[in-house]
């Protein structure tokens, strides 16, 4: 069933778990996620960035999502726009059938220049007004994703702050978070705590000086009824990085967000956890291994099927680790009866 994000996150908070928000670009990724959700009985949030919408086209994505709803009727599914850069982008997603949108007003429409607080409030409030008319949920963002140690933003898929940033820009201010939520009425708030997109989040296992989970705890104390979102939450498994390098890749040493820290964040108000890089690593590792060990392969089905299986395993691990496994059918039943 295709549903808005708010009731899914409300249910997650009531039952103490987090929902994986998984980025998709194509059929194989959608099937991997749906098979994982069905196998472990989890709700799921599909995320599509502007880059994904351009790559796969809205009409095809909508068709794939509708097919997923029909093929897996027992799984609660949210179709979410990731990092919308303007009200126009968000409106186009709403009109395309998305059930949830993110207005990332932390950056200007160019997707790279940090915006001021008042601009963020203005554009996010407008998107909330548009979305409410269609029953669509809205996520906002306050603060810029970036490396606290390096003092620099990150960029992926054409989106992310460029150049040097101050520590205050890269950590969401609790006072501003309270004002932002009150002014905009967002359903969920993405907070900046030192995480970033991509595989190169941290140069060593992260500690509090580069991954400020305590900032989430402080914000949650101020706005306990608001759903918090953790962006850049891939764990970057070392075995996947090593597998890619073993078969011709060249990924530098890097670390992601440990599961224990994500679980700590879930206890402090985080109900939506964004994961993309781990799935990319899993698929890439499986494909590289097959190409290296079976060079005679040329049928895409023969190497994309193992890639799907590798990604499905990562998705199942995240659903289990975040606590959403076992809750999909219960949520579906509640939504049908409401």
Task: Compose a concise summary of this entry.
The chain is α/β, with parallel strands linked by helices and 338 residues long. Strand 8, helix 9 and strand 9 form a beta-alpha-beta unit. The strands form 2 sheets. It has an 8-stranded parallel beta barrel with strand order 1-2-3-4-5-8-9-10, surrounded by 9 helices. A two-stranded antiparallel ribbon has the order 6-7.
List keywords for this structure.
338 residues; alpha/beta; TIM Barrel; eight-stranded parallel barrel; two-stranded antiparallel sheet; 10 strands; globular
Structure description:
- This protein has a single domain, classed as TIM Barrel (Alpha-Beta Barrel).
- The protein has 338 residues and is of the alpha/beta class.
- The model has no long low-confidence stretch (mean pLDDT 91).
- Helix 6 packs parallel to helix 8 (174-184).
- The chain has helices spanning 5-15, 27-40, 50-56, 58-71, 87-95, 117-132, 167-170, 174-184, 213-222, 238-246, 259-266, 277-293, 300-321, 328-337; strands at 19-23, 44-48, 77-84, 100-103, 137-142, 146-147, 152-153, 188-191, 227-230, 270-275.
- The radius of gyration is 19 Å and the shape is globular.
